Amino acid sequence: MSYLDQVINASGGHSAPLENLDEKEIRASLEAAGMLVPEEQDLADALLEIVEKHGKFNDDNTGVWAGYTSAKENTENAEIGVKCGNCIFWQAPNGCSIIVAETEEGGLCRFAVLPDGTVTATAGSKPAPKKDQIKGSSKNPSGSASGGKSITFSKKVEASLQEKADKHNEKYGDTASKKTSLKTLKAVYRRGAGAFSTSHRPDQNRNSWAMARVNAFLHLLRTGKPKNSKYTTDNDLLPASHPRSSKKDASALTASSYDSYIDSQLEIALLGKDQYVSAEHAIHSLAEYSGMGYDIIPSIRAAWVRGLKAGDDPYERASLLATQLHSSPDSDLLPKEGF
Ligand code: SF4
């Protein structure tokens, strides 16, 4: 399903404002807004069709080679904007709609579809200074483009994570390699919620998918090894003394540097609207910024589509809902319970 389809299919569980939408009309609006040019969307649609038919591209020498390059190896390209973070298929923080590999914002594969305007210079030339790369929306809260805000979750999710951390620490908290915190579990949950956008079992919702990842992390903490040997993606969040910690030089990692690392995993910042590479990328980030947790995603999608239908700037409309919540013109779209 393309990100455009995801926008159109928004608003599960709410009064549906979307049923009479014409997909062509929405696509034309996106193109007119400069988010897409027709060739780019056609290329993206073709890749998505291949994925639908054959499954996601993998990197294991079978089928078509995706050629994923890690952020560490892609620094020169990333500096000028040639990176996953600017690709329309990227699903923050570590996903991709079309390849299996776990991605990074600064990584790249050979299928990248980069909308016009996302590449700031030709390879070999100097990237634009940071101040010129980030343009805040006039409607963004002041300071949002510079980061520094910590993500918040719905009260329900926070209470559930707190309970898990407390129960775990009651039994295992006296052992440094097994101890955890609410903050660490939030970081794991955030990754799970982001990964849901990329792939999940059909019987799962975003919350259950993210909680399953938290449970897998707790299992890894208490037993020293993962239930599924492929689960290595949160090893950087383990205490340094845990046998699977990816922090190689555990002796150099103080408790406070571990703490700052976890903090950095929970930091959010709204980008300037021109920096979002797809509607889905913007909607996900706005949900994280809203302070209402991931349950607000369908509402933000719905506000986005209302904006398109009304001829307004869809980002501004969605952004108003995420930042002004009950004072926003689209407050009727907010979830009714649990906040
Ligand atoms: S460049 Fe795009 S298609 Fe390739 S891995 Fe990154 S997000 Fe996926």
Task: Write up what this structure looks like.
By secondary structure, the protein is an all-alpha fold. It has helices spanning about 5-10, 25-30, 40-55, 75-80, 130-135, 155-170, 180-195, 205-225, 255-265, 280-290, 295-310, 315-325; strands at about 90, 95, 150, 265-270. It folds into 3 domains: about 5-125, no CATH class; about 150-270, no CATH class; about 275-335, no CATH class. The strands form 2 sheets. A two-stranded antiparallel sheet has the order 1-2. Strands 3-4 form a two-stranded antiparallel ribbon. The two termini are about 30 Å apart. It binds iron/sulfur cluster. The site of iron/sulfur cluster (SF4) has 14 residues, from loops.
Secondary structure elements and their pairing?
Layout: H1 3-8, H2 23-32, H3 38-54, H4 75-79, E1 90-91, E2 95-96, H5 130-133, E3 149-150, H6 155-172, H7 182-196, H8 206-223, H9 255-265, E4 267-268, H10 279-290, H11 297-310, H12 314-324
Antiparallel strand pairs: 1-2, 3-4
The structure holds iron/sulfur cluster.
